[in-house]
C-alpha cells in the first residue's frame, strides 16, 4: 500500500519535465501500404513455360486446356461414357451429342466422367 511509504509529489510545469512530457504524448505509427502485385500476361506465360517470339509474323495462336485433354482421354476409357454414346447413336439420348472427334457433349458442355477415371 502507498500509505506504508513516505512519499512526496512534486509538480513540474510543461517543458520543465521533459521525460514525462515525452511519455505523455501520443505515439504516431508509420504504417506501410501494401498493394497487390499485378502480374502481366508475359509473367503468366512464363509460369506456363510459354515464351514470346519476338521475330516473325504470328498468324494464329491456340491455347488448349490440359484438363480438357485429360477429360477427352478419360472419356475414351470410361464404360459409362461408351453407354451414353451408344444411346446417342440409337437416338435415345437427345440432349447429348458426339462431335467429329468422338467427344461426348451435353448440350454445349463437355461431359466429365467420374473422378477416378481422370486420375493418372
Top keywords for this entry?
5 helices; three-stranded antiparallel sheet; mainly alpha; 120 residues
List the helices and strands and how they pair.
Blueprint: H1 18-24, H2 41-47, H3 66-77, H4 79-90, E1 96-98, E2 104-106, E3 109-110, H5 115-118
Antiparallel strand pairs: 1-2, 2-3
Give an overview of the whole structure:
There is one protein chain. The chain has 120 residues and is mostly helical. Strands 1-2-3 form a 3-stranded antiparallel β-sheet.
Widest sheet, order of strands: 1-2-3
Indicate the structural class. mainly alpha
Helix share of residues? 25-40%
| Share of residues in strands | 5-15%
Give unreliable regions as ranges: none
Short account of what is shown:
With 120 residues, the chain is mainly alpha-helical. The chain has helices at 18-24, 41-47, 66-77, 79-90, 115-118; strands at residues 96-98, 104-106, 109-110.
Amino acid at each position: 500500500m502507498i500509505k506504508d511509504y513516505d512519499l512526496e509529489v512534486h509538480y513540474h510545469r510543461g517543458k520543465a519535465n521533459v521525460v514525462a512530457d515525452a511519455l505523455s504524448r501520443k505515439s504516431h505509427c508509420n504504417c506501410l501500404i501494401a498493394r497487390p502485385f499485378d502480374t502481366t500476361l508475359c509473367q503468366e506465360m512464363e509460369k506456363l513455360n510459354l515464351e514470346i517470339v519476338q521475330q516473325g509474323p504470328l498468324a494464329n495462336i491456340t491455347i488448349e486446356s490440359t484438363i480438357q485433354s485429360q477429360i477427352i482421354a478419360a472419356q475414351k476409357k470410361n464404360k459409362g461414357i461408351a453407354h451414353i454414346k451408344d444411346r446417342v447413336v440409337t437416338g435415345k439420348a437427345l440432349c447429348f451429342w458426339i462431335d467429329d472427334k468422338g467427344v461426348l457433349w451435353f448440350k454445349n458442355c463437355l461431359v466429365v466422367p467420374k473422378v477416378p477415371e481422370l486420375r493418372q
